[in-house]
Amino acid sequence: LYRNKPTHHPTISKAEETGIMEKYLKDNNGDPGSSINNKIDGLFFMATPKTTSGQIPDESFFGNYRIMIPPDYLVQGCNLYFADFTCLTGKSHYITLVLTKVNSKEDRYCRYRLVQLDFDDNPFFYKERGVFYVPLAHYLHVEILYTENVDL
Fold first, then answer.
1. Are strands 92-101 and 140-146 parallel, antiparallel or unpaired?
2. What residue stretches are annotated with the Phytanoyl-CoA hydroxylase-interacting protein-like C-terminal domain (predicted)?
């Protein structure tokens, strides 16, 4: 999983000082009717590699600072939820998933509003033979809102 932000983004500046990337309130980006907008805190990570090579893209329009985190570091003790499907100009689609610590405030919020997914059996972010995968398609991007702070 990787997170791109501009180097001047507040989460990056603060993380350089404290060693902790702090979660913040999810804004209205994505589907304006999404039930997680302005309701839960988190940090967005992309999960989609380049379809041509399977590697992480070299550039991102989200910013020039990148942090990469192995999925296993984040998913332990977590629930996974489907939150949003957003179509951008008919050419690109974003799937938003939410990763919450079991019984956290965000988990309790999502439990009654979102569809919970099984890590071993879902089409968006799944584990097979010990490795996490996402679908490879030029038009599909999987992003994960992780609802905890990240200790760098």
1. parallel
2. 2-152
